[in-house]
Amino acid sequence: SQLLAAIGYSIEEDTTVAVREAVAQARAALGDKPPSVAFLTSTVDHQASAVLDALRRELPGVAVHGSTTSLGVLGARGIVAGGGGAVAVLLLGGSGDIRVAAGAAEIKDDPRAAARAAAQALREAGGGALPRVVIVNAAPGHEEALLETLAQELPGVPMYGGSAADNAIIGEWSVYSERGAFGNAISLLGFFGPVAFGGACGRR
What we know:
globular
């Protein structure tokens, strides 16, 4: 069993070109191994719906997880940023007993219901089992309620991630999922099977 991962990124100003370049870099690193999920990140210089549409054209049938971010994206050698924005794509997959899946839900006016729905969608996509680790991306404002509910729905599962952002934190952010790009949503990325992860967090 093997976890597959490869990243690509672009600072091209044209959204279609940027997504195509980022996907091409990541696919080249994966070789002939097919991804099951695309972890998508972009700055709000690119319209989120256009980014998602371009990704779907490049990777039909691949699940989507992610969010917009502030000012730049992280690449293999540090921060990637350009005058016209940036796009990054982390392609993920698994072989053997390892599986990567995504699940999402709109938050609307009930973050706890959204967290339950996203967790259920993730488990269904992952074959019904509990994931070994989850990455959480969601719109700002309901983080505590979302995480408290996820801890109940996915007991004992470590979680990492962060809130969607824009360049000035003025509500222009989006959360990416295979269902669309939403301003108020939660998306989960789960790793299933014999996968080992390590993490740490610090407090000041």
